[in-house]
Amino acid sequence: MGRLTQSPVPVGPERADWIIYGTTDALAAFGDDWAGYAGVLSPDPENPANPIPIPVVYAPPHLEYLLPGDVVQLLPSGTVQVLYRRASQHNTILATERCNSF
User: Fold this and answer.
1) Environment class of residue 21 by beta-carbon count within 10 Å: exposed (0-12), middle (13-18) or buried (19+)?
2) What span, in angstroms and rounded, lies between the C-alpha atoms of 3 and 20?
3) For the segment 66-99, what is each residue's pLDDT rounded down to a tens digit?
4) Distance between alpha carbon 65 and the CA centroid of its chain, in Å?
5) Minimal CA–CA distance to 20: which of 64, 55, 63, 61?
6) Where are the beta strands (DSSP E) in 8-96?
7) Distance (Å, rounded) from C-alpha 90 to C-alpha 70?
8) For the sheet containing 80-84, what is the strand order?
9) Dist CA 50 CA 47 (whole Å)
10) pLDDT in tens, 25-68
């Protein structure tokens, strides 16, 4: 889980909170500096000539609306769950002191 970024984040522990997001061409801005990021999300199909050594989801359907700053969760199955859309006026976060569901 992490926030989407299209530009490199400085090296440090906060990198684990970010997911690189962009086309194959845009990913070139990161060079080979993949260390510490939570993963990569690309709307393009996988390019076997340029393997990425961290979790990647390629070409998820119907997510053209995503923007930098949105929060998503990448699942091992390749599913992308959109948890928070920065540009949306309809985000809701429920916080409770106790959870009474079993």
Assistant:
1) buried
2) 8
3) 999 999 999 999 999 999 999 998 888 777 887 7
4) 13
5) 55
6) 18-21, 39-42, 56-58, 71-74, 80-84
7) 13
8) 56-58, 39-42, 18-21, 2-5, 71-74, 80-84
9) 6
10) 999 899 999 999 999 999 999 988 888 999 999 999 999 999 99
Is residue 71 within 8 A of residue 3, CB to CB? The reply is yes
Sign of the alpha-carbon torsion through 41, 38, 28, 69? positive
* Tokens 């939570």 -> residue: 38
Backbone angles phi, psi at 13, to 5 degrees: -65, -25
**pLDDT at site 101:** 64
Cβ pair 37, 18 in contact under 8 A: yes
